[in-house]
Amino acid sequence: MILIQNLRYRTLAIGHLSIGPGMTTIIGPNGSGKTSLLRLLAGIAVPESGSVLIDGIPPRDTEIGWVNEFPDRNMLFGRVYDEITSPLRFRHMPDGQITERTESVMDALGIRSLRNRLVEELSGGEKVLVALAAALVVRPLILIIDEYDSHLDGNRTEEIGQLIRQNPIPSVIHCTQDMEAAARSDQVIFLQDGGVGHAGDPVQVFSSLKDTAFFPLSWRGKP
Questions:
Q1: pLDDT tens digit string along 19-33?
Q2: Cα(159)–Cα(194) distance, rounded to whole angstroms?
């Protein structure tokens, strides 16, 4: 369970917010604080005041996987295999465990054929998969993903979304502009003007957004 209390960070001000296990999607207008909230949850940023705790522990003391909106900007190595193994090498894990985990995550994501490719030669979708592999290889308790789908076509987005949902991670938190994807989540958080406008399951949240651009197209016309 993630608990946010009396948080202030830049334009964000959240008095109380709890996020349970499963898939959570953060939505809202541009500038509402979505990426800032994700960075706080990932431990990349720290609150100016208040707290973010994951099972009572600060994010920086928790195993978290992070995928940036522009994944290639955070890649450190030229070759795919080196990039995926890097989080484990930084943790000084034994070579045998590094190989086992890396091979396992590449098989799960279907990217074994990319192992010796140069990152700069990859397509946008392939870069997302490599960044996802590097996040998953540490076997995180929480996977946090910025708008990875903003540069992909619908088919590629759905393919990667299915791979994420199939992975046995207790909690996945991401933000998106795709309301159809948000509607398939366990929990939706709608940010507005730096605060939480609505939070709950998709039915609860979207019932309050019927007359907005954030209401899923496939739900329009339903009673």
A1: 999 999 999 999 999
A2: 31
Residue 101 phi/psi, 5-degree rounding, is: -65, -40
What is the token pair recorded at 60?
């920086």
Helices (H), 91-153: 95-109, 124-136
CA distance 146 to 67: 6
Q: How many whole angstroms from its chain centre is CA 70? A: 12
Nearest CA to 163 out of 128, 188, 119, 189 is that of 128
Examine the pLDDT at 34 and tell me if it is beyond 80: yes
DSSP 8-state symbol, 174: E
Cα–Cα distance, 17 to 5 (Å, whole number): 7
Q: Provide the whole-model pTM.
A: 0.90
> Contact at 8 Å (CB) between 68 and 145?
no
